[in-house]
Amino acid sequence: MLTGALLILAPLFLGFALALDNRHVMTVIHYGVEVLIYFILALLGLGLGQMEGLGAQLGGMAVQVLILVVVLLVANMIGLWLFHRWQPMTIERADGDVSPGYRRLFLAGLKPLLAVMAGLLAGYYLLPDMPMAEQAATWALMLLLFLIGIQLRNAGLSLRKLLMNRQGLGIAVSLTLSSLVAGVALIPWLALPWHDVLAMASGFGWYSLSGIVIGDALGPAWGGVAFLNDVLREIIALAIIPLLIATRPAMAIGYGGATAMDFTLPVIRSSGGLACVPVAIASGFLLSFLSPVLMAVFLSLG
């Protein structure tokens, strides 16, 4: 498993080492990332659909997802609140900030669920057993991480400046530590080895990564649990950001995890103003690097 973990990490850092300045190539990479994400999610659903005894396991999966979501939500909110108390951040919302359209964002948040559902139904009702699907998902994930590494390197962001953003760094560390504390508390409830539970808690909202990585290591049922936990984090973040960002910006920005630099960024921008954008990008960027590293390290201990 250690070799597999290193294979997952290598493409991310290899992509980050490449500096590209061709706008056309970067556009192709952007669309390639989108296609790969939905392809990987469909394969995740396919694995679930072809899993033996799926119907009997759905109830248990729902309970496990609920426990994960609730415990992580409580732990993350406490950790981010403590950071807010220690390093309070004040924001001024600009009058010209416009709502990004929450209905559109909510529908966009449902797309990954639809991709998984399509794969699940195809695997359960239509397609024969496809043993190569898991290997295809792993290779697709490695290509995805390589392209994401390129995107991160060429997003005009300096790693040194991101690490010097005290608020962003503090939010990322607070979310990471509180998630690991939640993972420790979840060990007796999930009936998994401690390192596997900590890997489950390290998705930070990156559902396309956690679903496949956990599924590859622990089976499609746990991959489905990891995916649903992280996609629900993203959806919940869309709801709480406008409610908390004026008074508790660290909590609002931090709970979305890795999504703060992409999917939830428009909501953070419109609700909190321009001052929140560098903080959100810094925290999301750092969590996007920490998530695969922590999952690979914890899973390699098995």
UniProtKB/TrEMBL annotation:
The keyword Endoplasmic reticulum is assigned to this record: no
Top-level taxon in the UniProt lineage: Bacteria
Positions of transmembrane segments: 29-49, 61-84, 104-127, 139-157, 169-192, 204-223, 235-258, 279-301
DNA damage listed as a keyword: no
Alphabetical keyword list: Membrane, Transmembrane, Transmembrane helix
A GO molecular-function descriptor: L-lysine efflux transmembrane transporter activity
Pfam families, A to Z: Lys_export
GO cellular component, one term: plasma membrane
PANTHER family referenced in this protein's UniProt entry, alphabetically: LYSINE EXPORTER LYSO (PTHR35804:SF1)
Name assigned to this protein: DUF340 domain-containing protein
